Amino acid sequence: MKKTLSLLLALALLLTCAAGLAEEKKQVKVGIILLIENGAFLDMKEGIISGLAKAGFVEGENLTVDYQNAQGDSANLGTICQSMDDGTYDLVFTVATPATQYFVGLESETPCVFCSVAAPVAAGVMADLAVPDKNATGTSNAIPAGDILSLGLTITPDVKTFGLLYCTNEINALNAMANAKVWLTENGYAYEEATITASAEVQTAAQALLEKDIDAVFVANDATVQAAVDVLVEMCNEEGIPTYCCSATTVLSGCLATLAMSDIAIGEQTAEIAVQVLSGTPIAEIPAVVVPADIVSVNVKTMQALGIELPESLTALGEIQYLGE
Protein backbone atom coordinates (compact mmCIF):
# COMPACT_ATOMS: atom_id res chain seq x y z
CA MET A 1 0.00 0.00 0.00
CA LYS A 2 2.80 2.41 0.96
CA LYS A 3 4.65 1.57 -2.24
CA THR A 4 1.48 2.28 -4.24
CA LEU A 5 1.05 5.64 -2.52
CA SER A 6 4.68 6.48 -3.11
CA LEU A 7 4.34 5.63 -6.77
CA LEU A 8 1.20 7.72 -7.05
CA LEU A 9 2.91 10.67 -5.37
CA ALA A 10 5.91 10.33 -7.63
CA LEU A 11 3.66 10.18 -10.67
CA ALA A 12 1.73 13.24 -9.49
CA LEU A 13 4.99 15.12 -8.98
CA LEU A 14 6.18 14.09 -12.44
CA LEU A 15 2.94 15.26 -14.03
CA THR A 16 3.16 18.55 -12.14
CA CYS A 17 6.69 19.12 -13.39
CA ALA A 18 5.67 18.20 -16.92
CA ALA A 19 2.77 20.63 -16.77
CA GLY A 20 5.12 23.32 -15.55
CA LEU A 21 7.53 22.66 -18.39
CA ALA A 22 4.66 22.72 -20.88
CA GLU A 23 3.57 26.04 -19.46
CA GLU A 24 7.10 27.37 -19.78
CA LYS A 25 7.21 26.34 -23.42
CA LYS A 26 4.11 28.45 -24.06
CA GLN A 27 6.01 31.55 -23.01
CA VAL A 28 6.93 33.59 -26.07
CA LYS A 29 9.52 36.35 -26.41
CA VAL A 30 9.45 38.68 -29.41
CA GLY A 31 11.31 41.81 -30.41
CA ILE A 32 9.88 44.84 -32.22
CA ILE A 33 12.39 47.12 -33.97
CA LEU A 34 11.76 50.62 -35.34
CA LEU A 35 14.32 52.94 -36.93
CA ILE A 36 12.25 55.93 -35.86
CA GLU A 37 8.91 56.58 -34.20
CA ASN A 38 6.03 58.26 -35.98
CA GLY A 39 2.27 57.92 -35.82
CA ALA A 40 2.07 55.26 -38.52
CA PHE A 41 4.79 53.04 -37.06
CA LEU A 42 3.38 53.31 -33.55
CA ASP A 43 -0.05 52.29 -34.87
CA MET A 44 1.58 49.31 -36.59
CA LYS A 45 3.24 48.35 -33.31
CA GLU A 46 -0.14 48.62 -31.55
CA GLY A 47 -1.69 46.44 -34.26
CA ILE A 48 1.02 43.80 -33.84
CA ILE A 49 0.51 43.55 -30.09
CA SER A 50 -3.31 43.54 -30.34
CA GLY A 51 -3.16 40.95 -33.12
CA LEU A 52 -1.00 38.67 -30.99
CA ALA A 53 -3.41 39.11 -28.08
CA LYS A 54 -6.33 38.03 -30.27
CA ALA A 55 -4.44 34.80 -30.93
CA GLY A 56 -3.84 34.20 -27.23
CA PHE A 57 -0.37 35.72 -26.85
CA VAL A 58 -0.94 38.36 -24.19
CA GLU A 59 1.82 40.70 -23.06
CA GLY A 60 2.55 40.26 -19.36
CA GLU A 61 1.01 36.79 -19.29
CA ASN A 62 2.58 34.45 -21.83
CA LEU A 63 4.22 37.08 -24.04
CA THR A 64 7.30 39.22 -23.49
CA VAL A 65 7.76 42.12 -25.91
CA ASP A 66 11.12 43.84 -26.25
CA TYR A 67 10.37 47.09 -28.08
CA GLN A 68 13.36 49.09 -29.33
CA ASN A 69 13.38 52.42 -31.19
CA ALA A 70 16.66 53.48 -32.85
CA GLN A 71 15.71 57.17 -32.64
CA GLY A 72 16.46 57.60 -36.33
CA ASP A 73 20.12 56.63 -35.88
CA SER A 74 21.46 53.95 -38.23
CA ALA A 75 24.25 53.00 -35.81
CA ASN A 76 21.69 52.49 -33.03
CA LEU A 77 19.61 50.40 -35.41
CA GLY A 78 22.55 48.11 -36.06
CA THR A 79 23.23 47.69 -32.36
CA ILE A 80 19.59 46.87 -31.66
CA CYS A 81 19.37 44.32 -34.47
CA GLN A 82 22.55 42.60 -33.36
CA SER A 83 21.35 42.47 -29.75
CA MET A 84 18.18 40.65 -30.83
CA ASP A 85 20.19 38.12 -32.81
CA ASP A 86 21.23 36.27 -29.66
CA GLY A 87 19.02 33.21 -29.92
CA THR A 88 16.68 34.16 -27.06
CA TYR A 89 13.83 35.52 -29.21
CA ASP A 90 11.14 33.36 -30.77
CA LEU A 91 10.89 35.89 -33.58
CA VAL A 92 11.64 39.54 -34.31
CA PHE A 93 9.23 42.03 -35.86
CA THR A 94 10.87 44.73 -37.99
CA VAL A 95 8.74 47.75 -38.87
CA ALA A 96 9.42 49.31 -42.29
CA THR A 97 12.28 48.81 -44.72
CA PRO A 98 15.50 49.98 -42.98
CA ALA A 99 15.06 47.79 -39.87
CA THR A 100 14.08 44.82 -42.02
CA GLN A 101 17.06 45.18 -44.33
CA TYR A 102 19.49 45.33 -41.43
CA PHE A 103 18.07 42.37 -39.51
CA VAL A 104 17.74 40.17 -42.60
CA GLY A 105 21.30 41.13 -43.53
CA LEU A 106 22.52 39.47 -40.33
CA GLU A 107 21.37 36.11 -41.74
CA SER A 108 19.94 35.37 -38.31
CA GLU A 109 18.50 32.02 -37.33
CA THR A 110 15.76 33.97 -35.54
CA PRO A 111 12.70 34.34 -37.81
CA CYS A 112 12.01 37.88 -39.02
CA VAL A 113 8.41 38.98 -39.57
CA PHE A 114 8.41 42.37 -41.22
CA CYS A 115 5.63 44.94 -41.21
CA SER A 116 5.02 47.54 -43.91
CA VAL A 117 7.92 46.97 -46.28
CA ALA A 118 6.82 48.66 -49.50
CA ALA A 119 9.00 46.63 -51.87
CA PRO A 120 10.41 43.49 -50.18
CA VAL A 121 12.04 42.12 -53.33
CA ALA A 122 13.63 45.44 -54.34
CA ALA A 123 14.79 45.87 -50.74
CA GLY A 124 16.57 42.52 -50.92
CA VAL A 125 14.75 40.86 -48.01
CA MET A 126 13.28 38.12 -50.20
CA ALA A 127 13.65 37.01 -53.79
CA ASP A 128 9.97 36.21 -54.31
CA LEU A 129 6.92 37.32 -52.31
CA ALA A 130 5.39 33.86 -52.69
CA VAL A 131 8.46 31.92 -51.53
CA PRO A 132 10.38 33.52 -48.62
CA ASP A 133 14.03 32.50 -48.81
CA LYS A 134 15.86 34.56 -46.17
CA ASN A 135 14.09 33.49 -42.98
CA ALA A 136 11.83 36.53 -43.37
CA THR A 137 8.24 37.14 -44.40
CA GLY A 138 5.55 39.63 -43.51
CA THR A 139 3.34 42.38 -44.90
CA SER A 140 3.97 44.79 -47.75
CA ASN A 141 2.27 48.15 -48.07
CA ALA A 142 3.19 48.36 -51.74
CA ILE A 143 2.54 52.00 -52.61
CA PRO A 144 -0.02 52.35 -55.43
CA ALA A 145 1.67 55.48 -56.76
CA GLY A 146 -0.44 55.61 -59.90
CA ASP A 147 -3.67 55.26 -57.92
CA ILE A 148 -2.62 58.07 -55.55
CA LEU A 149 -1.73 60.37 -58.44
CA SER A 150 -5.06 59.50 -60.06
CA LEU A 151 -6.75 60.38 -56.75
CA GLY A 152 -4.97 63.74 -56.84
CA LEU A 153 -6.23 64.40 -60.34
CA THR A 154 -9.76 63.53 -59.24
CA ILE A 155 -9.56 66.12 -56.46
CA THR A 156 -7.61 68.76 -58.43
CA PRO A 157 -8.18 67.98 -62.14
CA ASP A 158 -6.31 71.04 -63.46
CA VAL A 159 -2.91 69.65 -62.42
CA LYS A 160 -0.52 69.28 -65.37
CA THR A 161 2.86 69.05 -63.63
CA PHE A 162 3.70 67.30 -60.36
CA GLY A 163 6.63 68.12 -58.10
CA LEU A 164 8.19 64.96 -56.66
CA LEU A 165 9.98 65.19 -53.30
CA TYR A 166 11.71 62.18 -51.74
CA CYS A 167 14.75 60.87 -49.87
CA THR A 168 17.35 59.05 -51.96
CA ASN A 169 18.53 57.00 -48.96
CA GLU A 170 15.31 54.99 -48.63
CA ILE A 171 14.63 52.17 -51.10
CA ASN A 172 10.88 52.35 -50.49
CA ALA A 173 10.88 56.02 -51.54
CA LEU A 174 12.97 55.30 -54.62
CA ASN A 175 10.64 52.49 -55.63
CA ALA A 176 7.48 54.58 -55.13
CA MET A 177 8.89 57.47 -57.13
CA ALA A 178 10.11 55.22 -59.93
CA ASN A 179 6.56 53.93 -60.27
CA ALA A 180 5.19 57.48 -60.09
CA LYS A 181 7.45 58.64 -62.91
CA VAL A 182 6.40 55.74 -65.12
CA TRP A 183 2.72 56.43 -64.48
CA LEU A 184 3.04 60.17 -65.11
CA THR A 185 4.94 59.64 -68.34
CA GLU A 186 2.53 56.99 -69.63
CA ASN A 187 -0.45 59.23 -68.85
CA GLY A 188 0.96 62.40 -70.39
CA TYR A 189 1.81 64.40 -67.26
CA ALA A 190 5.03 66.27 -66.59
CA TYR A 191 7.06 66.22 -63.39
CA GLU A 192 9.89 68.04 -61.64
CA GLU A 193 11.81 66.44 -58.80
CA ALA A 194 13.81 67.46 -55.74
CA THR A 195 15.68 64.94 -53.62
CA ILE A 196 16.98 65.03 -50.07
CA THR A 197 19.17 62.94 -47.78
CA ALA A 198 18.11 64.51 -44.45
CA SER A 199 14.99 66.09 -42.99
CA ALA A 200 16.76 69.44 -42.63
CA GLU A 201 16.85 69.66 -46.44
CA VAL A 202 13.06 69.55 -46.90
CA GLN A 203 12.61 73.33 -46.81
CA THR A 204 15.28 73.96 -49.45
CA ALA A 205 13.95 71.17 -51.65
CA ALA A 206 10.38 72.45 -51.34
CA GLN A 207 11.50 75.96 -52.26
CA ALA A 208 13.29 74.61 -55.33
CA LEU A 209 10.10 72.87 -56.47
CA LEU A 210 7.91 75.91 -55.84
CA GLU A 211 10.19 78.03 -58.00
CA LYS A 212 9.35 75.75 -60.92
CA ASP A 213 6.06 75.57 -62.81
CA ILE A 214 4.36 72.85 -60.75
CA ASP A 215 0.67 72.43 -59.93
CA ALA A 216 0.88 69.82 -57.12
CA VAL A 217 3.44 68.00 -55.00
CA PHE A 218 3.71 64.24 -54.42
CA VAL A 219 5.91 63.03 -51.54
CA ALA A 220 7.13 59.50 -51.00
CA ASN A 221 6.52 57.18 -48.06
CA ASP A 222 9.77 57.82 -46.21
CA ALA A 223 10.44 58.79 -42.63
CA THR A 224 12.93 61.47 -43.66
CA VAL A 225 10.32 63.57 -45.46
CA GLN A 226 7.71 62.76 -42.81
CA ALA A 227 9.87 64.32 -40.09
CA ALA A 228 9.59 67.76 -41.74
CA VAL A 229 6.49 67.42 -43.90
CA ASP A 230 4.73 70.18 -41.95
CA VAL A 231 7.29 72.64 -43.34
CA LEU A 232 6.54 71.49 -46.88
CA VAL A 233 2.78 71.74 -46.38
CA GLU A 234 2.95 75.25 -44.94
CA MET A 235 5.00 76.46 -47.90
CA CYS A 236 2.74 74.76 -50.45
CA ASN A 237 -0.49 75.99 -48.83
CA GLU A 238 0.80 79.56 -49.02
CA GLU A 239 1.25 79.11 -52.77
CA GLY A 240 -2.07 77.30 -53.26
CA ILE A 241 -0.31 74.05 -54.21
CA PRO A 242 -2.01 70.77 -53.14
CA THR A 243 0.19 68.09 -51.57
CA TYR A 244 -0.39 64.37 -52.03
CA CYS A 245 1.41 61.59 -50.17
CA CYS A 246 1.57 57.86 -49.42
CA SER A 247 0.46 57.57 -45.79
CA ALA A 248 -2.51 58.58 -43.66
CA THR A 249 0.01 59.70 -41.03
CA THR A 250 1.46 62.17 -43.53
CA VAL A 251 -2.06 63.41 -44.24
CA LEU A 252 -2.55 63.90 -40.51
CA SER A 253 0.68 65.93 -40.56
CA GLY A 254 -0.82 68.25 -43.16
CA CYS A 255 -0.71 66.81 -46.69
CA LEU A 256 -4.00 67.13 -48.55
CA ALA A 257 -4.79 63.50 -49.35
CA THR A 258 -3.72 59.94 -50.06
CA LEU A 259 -5.07 56.50 -50.76
CA ALA A 260 -3.85 54.29 -47.93
CA MET A 261 -4.52 51.37 -45.63
CA SER A 262 -5.11 51.27 -41.88
CA ASP A 263 -1.77 51.15 -40.07
CA ILE A 264 -3.28 49.27 -37.14
CA ALA A 265 -4.81 46.76 -39.56
CA ILE A 266 -1.49 46.11 -41.30
CA GLY A 267 0.06 45.52 -37.87
CA GLU A 268 -2.67 43.01 -37.04
CA GLN A 269 -2.15 41.19 -40.34
CA THR A 270 1.56 41.05 -39.57
CA ALA A 271 0.70 39.46 -36.22
CA GLU A 272 -1.42 36.85 -38.00
CA ILE A 273 1.65 35.83 -40.01
CA ALA A 274 3.73 35.71 -36.82
CA VAL A 275 1.19 33.40 -35.18
CA GLN A 276 1.77 30.92 -38.01
CA VAL A 277 5.51 31.05 -37.32
CA LEU A 278 4.98 30.61 -33.59
CA SER A 279 2.73 27.63 -34.32
CA GLY A 280 5.57 25.89 -36.11
CA THR A 281 4.94 26.68 -39.79
CA PRO A 282 8.28 27.23 -41.58
CA ILE A 283 8.71 30.77 -42.88
CA ALA A 284 9.46 29.40 -46.34
CA GLU A 285 5.84 28.21 -46.45
CA ILE A 286 4.32 31.58 -45.47
CA PRO A 287 4.10 34.00 -48.42
CA ALA A 288 4.36 37.74 -47.83
CA VAL A 289 1.05 39.58 -48.00
CA VAL A 290 0.44 42.80 -49.93
CA VAL A 291 -2.13 44.86 -48.00
CA PRO A 292 -4.44 46.82 -50.33
CA ALA A 293 -4.98 50.57 -50.04
CA ASP A 294 -8.72 51.20 -49.75
CA ILE A 295 -9.10 54.30 -47.57
CA VAL A 296 -9.13 57.86 -48.95
CA SER A 297 -7.54 60.04 -46.25
CA VAL A 298 -8.12 63.80 -46.47
CA ASN A 299 -6.80 66.61 -44.28
CA VAL A 300 -9.73 68.94 -43.56
CA LYS A 301 -7.66 71.99 -42.57
CA THR A 302 -5.52 71.78 -45.70
CA MET A 303 -8.59 71.27 -47.86
CA GLN A 304 -10.11 74.42 -46.37
CA ALA A 305 -6.86 76.37 -46.67
CA LEU A 306 -6.73 75.57 -50.39
CA GLY A 307 -10.45 76.21 -50.90
CA ILE A 308 -10.99 72.71 -52.28
CA GLU A 309 -14.29 70.80 -52.31
CA LEU A 310 -14.19 67.05 -52.72
CA PRO A 311 -15.98 65.69 -55.80
CA GLU A 312 -18.78 63.19 -55.25
CA SER A 313 -16.94 60.67 -57.44
CA LEU A 314 -14.31 60.29 -54.70
CA THR A 315 -16.48 57.83 -52.79
CA ALA A 316 -16.00 55.29 -55.58
CA LEU A 317 -12.31 55.02 -54.64
CA GLY A 318 -12.94 53.85 -51.08
CA GLU A 319 -14.01 54.87 -47.58
CA ILE A 320 -13.24 58.55 -46.91
CA GLN A 321 -11.35 59.32 -43.70
CA TYR A 322 -11.27 62.95 -42.59
CA LEU A 323 -8.21 63.92 -40.57
CA GLY A 324 -6.81 67.09 -39.00
CA GLU A 325 -10.20 68.52 -38.01
What can you see in these coordinates?
The chain folds into two domains: 7-141 and 262-290, 3-Layer(aba) Sandwich (Rossmann fold), CATH 3.40.50; 145-260 and 294-323, Response regulator (Rossmann fold), CATH 3.40.50. Helix 2 (39-54) crosses helix 11 (263-278) and helix 7 (202-210) runs parallel beside helix 9 (229-238). With 325 residues, the chain is an alpha/beta fold. Strand 3 (91-95), helix 4 (97-105) and strand 4 (112-115) form a beta-alpha-beta unit. It is 42% helix and 20% strand. Residues 1-25 have low confidence and may be disordered. The radius of gyration is 23 Å and the shape is elongated. The strands form three sheets. A six-stranded parallel β-sheet has the order 2-1-3-4-5-11, sandwiched between helices. A four-stranded parallel β-sheet has the order 7-6-8-9, sandwiched between helices. Strands 10-12-13 form a three-stranded mixed β-sheet.
Secondary-structure blueprint:
Layout: H1 2-25, E1 28-34, H2 39-54, E2 63-69, H3 74-83, E3 91-95, H4 97-105, E4 112-115, E5 136-140, H5 145-155, E6 161-167, H6 171-186, E7 190-196, H7 202-210, E8 216-219, H8 223-226, H9 229-238, E9 243-244, H10 248-252, E10 257-260, H11 263-278, E11 289-290, E12 295-299, H12 300-305, E13 319-323
Parallel strand pairs: 1-2, 1-3, 3-4, 4-5, 5-11, 6-7, 6-8, 8-9, 12-13
Antiparallel strand pairs: 10-12
